[in-house]
Design brief:
Layout (H helix, E strand, L loop, with lengths): L2 H12 L5 H8 L3 H14 L18 E9 L4 H12 L4 E6 L6 E7 L2 H10 L7 E8 L15
Antiparallel strand pairs: 1-3, 1-4, 2-3
């Protein structure tokens, strides 16, 4: 990946609906090479998709919690069952397996504290293999979905 590819990625991360014509002008290429580079970046897997960034409040999802999960046991079947169940829960926006304790962290959005309490009882408490979970409520987001640095 060269300097121009990184510039293209930077521009598309900040404005995904940018036309190829505008993109070409911003990175100093003509239309055809810019289009080819974007296609190549997509084919190589550097660009994995495009999406709209939605304000969660517009969907009534004003409440956010981070959930730290420690497993009872860490055999392969239990972990796979847990991970498959987590992936199917729409309110889980991020799920990561960690080294050490806790075993997982989840980022969850709900409408409010009452909805989160119901979510905890009806979804989290039913996840396979969970020994305990601890929730931390998000007071304020400072950085959310920041574009990846491309000037490395």
């Amino acid at each position: 990946m060269d300097r121009l590819d990184r510039k293209i990625l930077a521009e598309l991360q900040s404005e995904g609906r940018l036309s190829v014509t505008d993109l070409a002008a911003r990175v100093g290429l003509t239309l055809s090479p810019a289009h080819r580079r974007v296609r190549d970046l997509e084919a190589a897997g550097a660009i994995v998709g495009y999406r709209a960034i939605v304000d969660p409040a517009a969907l009534g999802l004003d409440f956010e919690a981070l959930v730290f999960i420690t497993m009872k046991q860490e055999d392969r079947e239990t972990l796979l069952a847990f991970e498959e169940a987590v992936v199917r829960i729409p309110n889980v926006l991020l799920a990561q397996r960690l080294f050490g304790d806790p075993d997982y962290i989840l980022r969850v959005r709900t409408a409010d504290l009452d909805a989160y309490a119901q979510f905890q009882d009806n979804e989290l408490a039913r996840l396979p293999g969970v020994q305990r979970f601890q929730s931390t409520l998000v007071m304020k987001n400072l950085v959310v979905d920041r574009p990846y640095p491309t000037d490395l």
